[in-house]
Write a structure and sequence with these properties.
With about 170 residues, this protein is mainly alpha-helical. The chain is about 60% helix and about 5% strand. It comes from Staphylococcus simulans UMC-CNS-990.
């Protein structure tokens, strides 16, 4: 494992979950945009291009990656709720990170994350508990439940939030 690859540990798919677990994961999804904005809005050019380990995404790319990945998560959520056991798509995150739109200011993705996460939290909070057992099929991860997806997206946001903090700390200490 590479240094700082999994600073909060690897994702652990839950075998079981409670209403409290769901509420915690939804809270994380809902709160992530404000935390990201607070951390990065006034970041200097040097801070926006800081990395948390050799060869890693920089802060700006991490913000764009979170937007890309969480758009997929939001769409997968809606597919799982509106289709019977949908096949959800994956994406080549490194190729997406090389697309020209990743040169856009990180604020564009912060705005996207903010609106999407607000909608996502509203949607998730309005669901009956049994909706979180609805299933989907992911080509790389196999069978999944909506609860698994929500847990993973909460973890994913915190995972990259920690990467951003590590990158900014590297700049601060240098």
């Amino acid at each position: 494992m590479l240094k700082n690859q999994f600073p909060i540990g690897k994702f652990q798919k839950p075998d079981r979950y409670s209403v409290e677990d769901l509420n915690t994961w939804i809270d994380v999804i809902e709160e992530l945009p404000d935390i990201l904005t607070t951390l990065t809005t006034n970041a200097s050019a040097e801070e926006r291009h800081a990395i948390y380990r050799e060869g890693s995404f920089d802060v700006q790319t991490l913000i764009h990656h979170i937007a890309d990945s969480h758009m997929h998560g939001f769409i997968r959520t809606k597919q799982t709720l509106t289709e019977d056991h949908p096949f959800v798509t994956s994406f080549l995150q490194d190729a997406w990170a090389e697309a020209p739109d990743n040169q856009a200011p990180l604020e564009y993705s912060l705005e996207l994350i903010d609106g999407m996460h607000k909608r996502w939290a509203i949607l998730l909070r309005d669901l009956p508990i049994e909706a979180f057992d609805r299933t989907f099929y992911h080509p790389e991860e196999g069978e999944g439940r909506l609860a698994d997806l929500v847990a993973k997206m909460a973890w994913h946001g915190n995972h990259h939030l920690e990467h951003i903090k590590l990158a900014l700390k590297e700049i601060e200490e240098s």
